[in-house]
Amino acid sequence: MQNHRRLAFYGLSILVSLAMLSHANAWEFGLKGSFNWTHEWYDQMGEKGFFGRYNVDNGVGTRAQNLNFWNGGQFDTNIVTGASSGWSYFNVEFEPEIKINPAIRMRGFYRLGTWGDPAASDYHTQDAPGTKNGFSQGQWTQFWLTANTPWGVFGVGKRPWSFGTGLQYDGADAATTESIVLVAPYGPFDFGIGFYPYRFVGTSSILVSHLIRNRVAAEAAFGDPYDLPLYYETETDLTTPGQYFSRADRSGSFSKDFLLFVSYSSGPLQFGALGAFGGYHIGPEALLLAHDESSPVIRLDAQLAHGTIFLKYNNGRVFLNTEAAWLYWTDQYQPREGFPGQHQNADSDSVYMPYTRYVEQWRGMLEAGAFAGPAKVSVITAWSPGPDRRKGRYIDRQSAAFVWHPKYDVHLGNFSVFRTYSYLFSYDYGSGLNAYNLTGDGFLRDAFVLAGAWITRWHQT
Question: Does the model's pTM come out above 0.90?
């Protein structure tokens, strides 16, 4: 009976697909592309570096004392031996659009990076010389479909997640979503609902063999974004992530995973609000252990809710952007029955006795400015919280997500908001806190910001 239901479902899916494509007699293909060649150069003024004179091995019995220059997480190795550093690279990007019929479109994003490195890589000059030696396999980083229906616009696939100013959902640079979404327009309003019928909780099955750019961002992009507990195995003296053996196991995926949003756009004014909620469970059944293994198998039940409200105003002369974004996360741990453990140390990753920890994070920003011909003047103030310590120790209720979930925090990077105001501190150094988003670009965390900028753009026709 179950097989008959599956066949009926597959048959219905094929019929619906054929019906939707029945008038696709001539597909229309559009393409946008770009080629960017970049050279970066950094210089350290003065006669001495952090560890003494340049190009001299100052180390005795150590490997690193002759390295005296630090130029941030964007560079290949962070430190060099001389007074300056630099590199060159290029990337090629294509944005195809396929119009199947007036109602259905497919869009994608294709780029050329470094061979064997899918983590937002660029090709470094002279890495692969030779007319017949490949330097990149080419990488599809996004592909999605939209369809106009009587109820609204239906969307599915991997696509940018842009909402608000980019303070939390920075789809212009890094954030993506793969939810199934329906957006219903009503006058100047857009009402949207989205959900994931399946999203695995655990590490990616894609192996990242080269991590040329910032390693933290690459591991977060392809690794375990939810920072699941690691179980110590006494037999092998190794740790095992608390994820399920099979990615198809529904016990190891989100049980609740949906979002709602509304936005208004009319003339110079735009505002909106978004809320998302998700929950998952990791239980003792997640690990395959022998009967005599005594690793503490921990049950974890987690719930997270995040969202934002924003307002934008731009009449061509003056503009105002403001946003407030939140993330609430609750982790409830419980050991297996009969395990004689102890309460978790808040500074340790080991969890034994029942323990609950919380994240209550709020971010905010306000930006204002004016246009005068080709010039733009703007000021910004913003707040992004940091750790909450009492007597030098983390408490169980944190105002910064990266304390308990640093890998998930990089999914909420805000690079685009601050790119106008900070190159070295934010983009290059990642705020000095390894704050690099999924693309490897630095963003701000644990900071109060007050900055201004003057930008002049010249257009030649």
Answer: no
